[in-house]
Amino acid sequence: MVIVMEAGSSPGQIAYLKGKLQNAGFKAHVSHGASRIIIGVIGEDTRRKLEDMAIKAIPGVEKIVSILKPYILASREFMPEDTIIQVGSVAIGGTEIQVIAGPCAIESEGQALETALAVKRAGATLFRGGAFKPRTSPYSFQGLGEKALKIMAKVREVTGLQIVTEVMDSDTLPLVAEYADVLQIGTRNMQNYQLLKKLGECRKPVLLKRGASASVEEWLLAAEYILAGGNYQVILCERGIRTFANNTRYTLDLSVVPLIKSLTHLPIMVDPSHSTGKWELVAPMSNAAIAAGADGIIVEVHPNPEEALSDGAQSLTIGRFTSMMHDLRAVARAVGR
Ligand code: PEP
Ligand code: MN
């Protein structure tokens, strides 16, 4: 259930109501919209209990709205305005699109710095790099771990680009959170509910990738886990789903972009690298993602893809990334971004 406050409701009225809801055993999530303050009420049997408490009679309350979707805090009904997530000076979900770029995995300081300086020059606004890699085979390169995190901290210091990196489990979360500006949850962990709960306790933005076989509802419920814990900074990321088609690594489900925009206030980005698995398809799919209304893309770039320790086949060279950025700007302009 959602309580919509009157336009002129006071901080005192909101604090009073919040206290009353908490005393009754509910969790109350206050959202400050442009024109209204809305309180999301989470708990069991909320409709009946709120009626019994005569919430509507409390000064400042305009109305109580019941949300029929299973996700509440992630829903558009809860928050009609778009959520904008601030990562340093970069705003994700606003008018401007954002580009996260960097190698699949951090391999060395030289590789990371060379890539970061080049993608920044080409217009990327955030740097990505894997430290703890979720590889399909246990024999594949697993990432440099903390050493990679230290390299990324250096990259941030030198370039000013904020860092996006994946966290794979609760054990390494404190370490990764020490270095990362955005915590990435990979496709394999979208339904790791214990980890999602822990992310709810963090106060850092989370890039939540869609599970490779997750429905939109399952994905938004995964986001709800993080929001329900009190961390309201969730960025969704479509990265391809598993279908019968084997012409690409996964099938990029671009229709979810406008769909997600109608269902939720959270920003959505697209990963054209992992979804296609082929560098040749990355630029066209990036353009398509922005044309469809995505708030940005996350792209793999490597100075020498043939020698990459992971995902070389889908990595753009610096030159290809630079020319893609040129075209992407034109698409962004065409759709008013
Ligand atoms: C990644 O972005 O490094 C990655 C492993 O992606 P995904 O979880 O989408 O496979
Ligand atoms: Mn990768």
- Widest sheet, order of strands: 7-8-9-10-11-12-13-14
Q: Uncertain regions: pLDDT < 50 for 5+ in a row?
A: none
Give the ligands present: phosphoenolpyruvate, manganese (II) ion
Structurally, the number of domains stands at 2
What's the CATH class label of the largest domain? Alpha Beta
Largest sheet: 8 strands, parallel, barrel
Query: Could you state the order of secondary-structure elements as H and E?
Result: EHEEHEEEEHEHEHEHEHEHEHHEH
Q: Structural class, from helix and strand content?
A: alpha/beta
**Going by CATH, what is the homologous superfamily of the largest domain?**
Aldolase class I
Shape call: elongated
Average pLDDT, rounded to a whole number, is 96
Query: How many strands in all?
Result: 14
Helical content band: 25-40%
CATH second-level architecture of the largest domain = Alpha-Beta Barrel
End-to-end CA span: 34 Å
Q: What is the name of the CATH topology of the largest domain?
A: TIM Barrel
Count of helix runs: 11
Radius of gyration: 21 Å
Question: Which band does the percent of strand residues land in?
Answer: 15-25%
